[in-house]
Amino acid sequence: MFISKKYFVIVWMILLAPLFGFSQIIGNQEAIVIKKNYPFLSYVIQNKEVKQLLKNDAILQQWKRSFRQQTEALIKEKDNPNNVYAIFDQLMLNDSAIGILGERLDLILKNNSSVSNWLIANKLAYIAPISKQQNLTVQYAWNKDLEGIRYSINVYGKGAKPHYPNIDSMSVEHANTRTKLELQRIFFDVVENTLDDDALFFMPSLKTATGLLEINGRYNATDFEPMEFSVNKNAVAKAKKVSWSAFSYSHILVLGAGPEIAADSINPLNILRCRLAAEQYLKKVAPFIMVSGGRVHPYKTEYSEAMEMKKYMVNELHIPDEAIIMEPHARHTTTNIRNAVRLLVKYGIPTAKPGIIVTTRDQSGWLTDDGFVKRCSSEMGIVPFSGIKRIYSTAVSYIPEIQSLYIDNKEPLDP
């Protein structure tokens, strides 16, 4: 069977949801995935006034009825072997539908003060510095969220290659027609439950994207969240009391490296980096050590690089828990730095003060090479630092850049 027993349990829990409508049920982890990947849609779902405006709009209701009829026609043909992935193609929406719906949303919501305030507050999450877009509009936010939804359905439903297939590809086998039909059949049932009259028109597409991430075991973006109340609780409390002028740097960043052997919990390279960071902390160059790295290597590992580094520092090197900030989501060197800056902003740590990265001699040289800047810009659409320079063979300093808040929902495991 192409889906493990564990995945079938998850799917059947979804299908046996209470009768008042699957479309109304958003789990705790799912809510985090939606907020991180599709913040505008998350805002709409949570705002009763905005949600009601969309439900009352006759044109959106007409579109939803038409969409429902088309979907129900596909459901009747769900066992057609020539129609493999028809439901996923339907749910990804075509460019025309996305454009028409975006224009309608913009017309309905453009004069709403709550929406306007949200757009102003969230501009940096949507508009990269290289964009010609000046202000965040409803249509722009909608287009970007749908772009992310389409990516997740394409990769985790249809089996398209993600940007990093060795670590991020779908878990569910999809090699033959039978298994393709089985996966699609599950989502015909899911979609039927998101087409009721009370559901928002975009819920079938949204719930399919999050559902596919879940049954593929790809809710990595939710790890340890909300961190300010869990793994980073003590550090957040400490940050409020720090006298920042007493330190040369705001934090010491440790870049994770995942073990390539499944049985190993921590890479020997990370042990070395942790020791280098501890030495700098004991010299009082910064009040915090930030350990960064998600569950990356080997494929679908259960070990979090950040958590294993924190455990090593606390248990072996006797660094206080309150002095360690965990960043457990980054999957690449580029996002190590980007995500670190995001936590500085979130926890009220001054971004005007430089940070220091401790690492090996080879990587410190690579980080300060022009090629790394180009890689950041190419892969993320932003450069999360400025003024990066090598201090000595195993340390690099940098200035955090606020453009790190830009969301890349084409990397749904760590947007």
How many β strands by DSSP?
A: 6
Structural class by secondary-structure content: alpha/beta
- Per DSSP, what share of the residues sits in E-state strands of 2 or more residues? 5-15%
The main sheet comes to:
6 strands, mixed
Number of domains: 2
Relative helix content: 40-55%
Describe this structure in words.
This protein has 415 residues and is of the alpha/beta class. It has 2 domains: 5-219, no CATH class; 223-405, Rossmann fold. Helices cover 50% and strands 7% of the residues. It contains 19 helices and 6 strands. It has helices at 5-15, 28-37, 39-46, 48-56, 58-76, 86-91, 95-109, 113-121, 123-126, 138-156, 165-168, 177-192, 203-215, 233-239, 268-282, 305-315, 333-346, 361-367, 370-380, and strands spanning 252-255, 289-292, 324-327, 355-358, 385-392, 395-400. A 6-stranded mixed β-sheet has the order 3-2-1-4-6-5. Helix 15 (268-282) links the parallel strand 1 (252-255) and strand 2 (289-292). Helix 10 crosses helix 13 (203-215). The longest helix has 19 residues, at 58-76. The protein is globular, with a radius of gyration of 23 Å.
